[in-house]
Structures are given as structure tokens and as C-alpha cells.
Amino acid sequence: MSLKNDKFPSSAAFDAINDALKDPADKKDAIKQGNAVFAFTLKNAAGETESWHIDLKTKGEVGKGVGEKPTVTLSLSDADFASLVAGKANAQRLFMSGKLKIKGDVMKATKMEPILKKAQTKAKL
């Protein structure tokens, strides 16, 4: 089942992250590093929003929707998420400029970057 939504081009990254978590060693490492449920709410150019989550607390998998009790929710535009995953944008700069909104445990949000870096090598955005 693909997590990609054609209205949100950057959503292909969620498939790449899911693929990166298929390796048992990578999954174990990601859960150890993340230890949280990360929810992402993206807004596309048409103003529509969609959510995905990355469970790095127990399951080590990616799914649609905000998931069960997200530890941290990151809200940003589809274009900014694509830049973030591609390594062209810095999460801290996006946050400081108001382009990235974080609800929940802000410190956990910092644990997300190594996981996104893994997807960079697999995603073709």
C-alpha cells in the first residue's frame, strides 16, 4: 500500500521512509533514536491538508493519518517538506521563519532529522 498522495508530491518521501524502516537493524536503530510518534500535517498549493505519521515508539512504521497519540506534530507546506527531506531546507530555520509549526514535544522533533536523512538517499524528490 502506497502512502503517496498525488495531490502532495512530497508524500513519496513517506514511502521512502517506510522502505528504510524495512531493514530490521535500521528499524531497531530508528526506534532507539526516535522513541516517539511523529505526525506530519502537510498543506498543498491548493490549500488542502493531509496527515501521515511515523511510529518510532513501538512499531517502526509509517502510516496515513496522525496516528495514535502523536508525541509531536509537525505542520508545514508540501513544498517545504520536500525541501526538508531533500536536505535543501533546515528544520530549525523553517521553524524560526514560521514555516514549520510544532505541537507537542519540540525536543523530540529534533530526533527526526536522522530519519529524514535516511529517506534522502532513497527518495527521488
UniProtKB/TrEMBL annotation:
InterPro entries according to UniProt: SCP2_sterol-bd_dom (IPR003033), SCP2_sterol-bd_dom_sf (IPR036527)
Provenance organism: Echria macrotheca
Domain SCP2: 16-117
Gene3D superfamilies, per database record: SCP2 sterol-binding domain
Pfam families cross-referenced by the UniProt entry: SCP2
Gene Ontology terms: cellular component: cytosol
Coiled-coil intervals, chain numbering: none
Protein name in UniProt: Sterol-binding-like protein
